[in-house]
Amino acid sequence: MTGPSADQLQARRDAVVRRLRDRGLAGLLVTTLVNVRYLTGFTGSNGALVLPTEGTGVFLTDGRYQDQAADEVPGLELLITRDLVGEGGRRMTGSSDAWAVETHTLSVDDHSRLDEHEVASAERVVESVREVKDEYEVEALREACAISVQALGALLEGPLVGRSERDVARDLEWRMLSLGAEAIAFETILASGPHSAVPHHHPTDRVIESGDLLKIDFGARVAGYHADCTRTVVLGPPADWQREIHAAVREAQAAGVEALVEGAVPSDVDALVRGSLDAAGWLDWFTTGLGHGVGLQIHEDPFFGPSNAGRLAPRTTLTMEPGIYLPGRGGVRIEDTVLVTSQGQRPVVLTEFPTELLEIA
Amino acid sequence: MTGPSADQLQARRDAVVRRLRDRGLAGLLVTTLVNVRYLTGFTGSNGALVLPTEGTGVFLTDGRYQDQAADEVPGLELLITRDLVGEGGRRMTGSSDAWAVETHTLSVDDHSRLDEHEVASAERVVESVREVKDEYEVEALREACAISVQALGALLEGPLVGRSERDVARDLEWRMLSLGAEAIAFETILASGPHSAVPHHHPTDRVIESGDLLKIDFGARVAGYHADCTRTVVLGPPADWQREIHAAVREAQAAGVEALVEGAVPSDVDALVRGSLDAAGWLDWFTTGLGHGVGLQIHEDPFFGPSNAGRLAPRTTLTMEPGIYLPGRGGVRIEDTVLVTSQGQRPVVLTEFPTELLEIA
Q1: What is the CATH number of domain B135-360?
Q2: pLDDT tens column, A204-218
Q3: Does the beta carbon of B170 lie under 8 angstroms from any beta carbon of chain A?
């Protein structure tokens, strides 16, 4: 995919500017790289944005990226410098109002170089705007998710028994890259047998055996956007306990996915899914978070949890990933990347792939 | 590789503690994840270390990593919390002296939660200690570099003409992973024809043609340690200008590598290599930095440049990567990861691979 259009980038900046104006701020110095990318289109490793509420913004990067910035960044003044924060600070002008800075990521040392200015906290304003995806972002996420599940489908044609976790993980990653992923979205979790009970297991040389549960948490990246998907399969006919915990997770996960509608409150969804696992008698073995926003970052706002009382807006993308982890025995997680749609419509599962307990040779 | 030993980790912490004592500090709150890994062995994504100059340190992580921390982190008290900085701050006790915090990475928001304490800047003390690698680190770097050049050798058996940059980049990455890399060290730069003039090019669908220069900047990661290597080859017999710029880069790079000895001053080495390119008439086309330390980070201290007047110590690892970039035509870079050895001994090139201009089919 080529980058977002000039209009899309301008619309993103406009959305941030509206929130800054509501707070009476003169502008925002954006120094968090992923936020800079979101607002400018710049995909390099060093950049900043001075975004005033009046007038044209300034994009800052160093000399390595002069040509790339000219290609990727429309609608902004370009300033080449090695001193992004210092030069950025000097452009924070034009008003007696305070400017906001990204205090959640700006380092103490960089902040001290702005101290002649009165500055306020950005309060994660860009992260907040990023929760709702525009058309470009939804398309990139769709593509990343489509590649992911296509690769999984090919992998699960098997055989898998007799191969190491590491080998199978590499195989899956290779398939995603061959299908057009620009990179893998994160280090693949591929956990067999007792390892499947470890929520964030790193693939090892353990050889996959008949009777194992195999938990695969993986995803492709496209145009900077991350897919996030987990399926747990069984190698051969399942034991009763495997069937039981898989069914409990599947029921809870399906309920969670269906609850991701416009206006839903994340803490309510969290309670709903936990209630499902509790009713089945397995809540004590669900030891991770329920899910998270996903987009330019693999984990981003909004997050599930008992304290998130916001309301989901259309075109928010989140993961839904309950699990049951029985230490020393095995575990099951089922995870989808889900798109919240408009009032009255069902959520769209972007990682569309069967959730039944598949038996693989 | 398994992780560093308890003794190695203790020796790293002791080296930091000595420097803290020299400054009269009571201890250091380590919040930079890569520094936490270096000093504790912890490979997860969320951790901090309270390192007092007297007594036992405290390792902090969240509940997801309880088992992993018990496995990976020897010799420290373990504290499970979601509030690493807050709890870390409460453990900064035991003395009326100031504690240091990592102000170059600690966010303004996190810092504000420590403001009841008198704190000093760590002044990159852990990064400074990390410049000199211990035996474990050298072994990991050796292995990462060996895998990298072995993969390159297999790739260059060809054929490459007629394949896309993206396809060839994926092929190289796959080979590194198959040879035992835990991941690629960074996104591969594979730049053909005119693209080779772009220092940090992303692989595209451009098909590699006869007569192209092909610049390949790549590396494997092993146990967290990064290899960094570049070779530029030509597809078929080279044109005179290709031969000329390659020879100039090769001569400058070889001189630079030989200069990486104990006691050398990075700014002097920088001047030496630039002098070589200048004498050949190409200095204006060398538009990037000369190199950087490499280890747990792909770019780390020390950096080359006109202002770095430190002296290289034995067991420092650096890249040496001059280049000539002719916009619209093509470019050449040759880069090695190099180990500085003891006084009087020549540096060791860890990415051992021919630097001649190879003609590939």
Answers
A1: 3.90.230.10
A2: 999 999 999 999 999
A3: yes
